[in-house]
């Protein structure tokens, strides 16, 4: 399945999570990723991967997403295949 959203500009990233709002139809997707500088960013693929929220704390970023009752898609993708958490 391919995304209708444009591909983001290349960037360095360390980890990536996908979150969905299952109450929307179709479910609305947000991406949470850790960049190479240690900053967690919430991006909206439907808005050209616009950054909605940014913080150095994973818990703060996760809390921001959970405020709107998004649910995590199981798993996390690491760019190197080696988790650094």
Walk me through the topology.
Elements: E1 13-21, E2 28-35, E3 40-44, E4 50-55, H1 58-66, E5 71-72, E6 77-78
Structure description:
This protein is mainly β. The protein has a domain of 34 residues. The chain is 11% helix and 38% strand. The chain has one helix and six strands; from the N terminus they run E-E-E-E-H-E-E. Strands 1, 2, 3, 4, 5 and 6 form a six-stranded antiparallel beta sheet that branches. A hairpin with a 4-residue loop joins strand 2 and strand 3. The longest helix is centred in the last third of the chain and has 9 residues. It starts with 12 loop residues before the first strand and ends in a 7-residue tail after the last strand. 12% of the residues are buried.
Structural class: mainly beta
Portion of residues in beta strands equals 35-45%
Q: Return the average pLDDT rounded to an integer.
A: 83
Question: What is the radius of gyration?
Answer: 13 Å
Order of helices and strands: EEEEHEE
Please mark out the parts with pLDDT under 50 across 5 or more consecutive residues, or reply none. none
Which oligomeric state applies? single chain
* Strand tally: 6
List keywords for this structure.
85 residues; 6-stranded antiparallel beta sheet; 1 helix; globular
Concise overview:
The protein is mainly β and 85 residues long. It has one helix and six strands; from the N terminus they run ββββαββ.
């Amino acid at each position: 399945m391919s995304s209708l959203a444009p591909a983001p500009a290349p960037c360095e990233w360390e980890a990536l999570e996908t979150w969905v709002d299952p109450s929307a139809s179709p479910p609305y997707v947000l991406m949470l990723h850790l960049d190479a500088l240690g900053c967690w960013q919430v991006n909206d693929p439907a808005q050209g991967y616009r950054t909605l929220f940014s913080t150095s704390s994973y818990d703060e970023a996760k809390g921001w997403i959970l405020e709107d009752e998004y649910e995590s898609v199981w798993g996390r993708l690491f760019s190197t295949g080696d988790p650094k958490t």
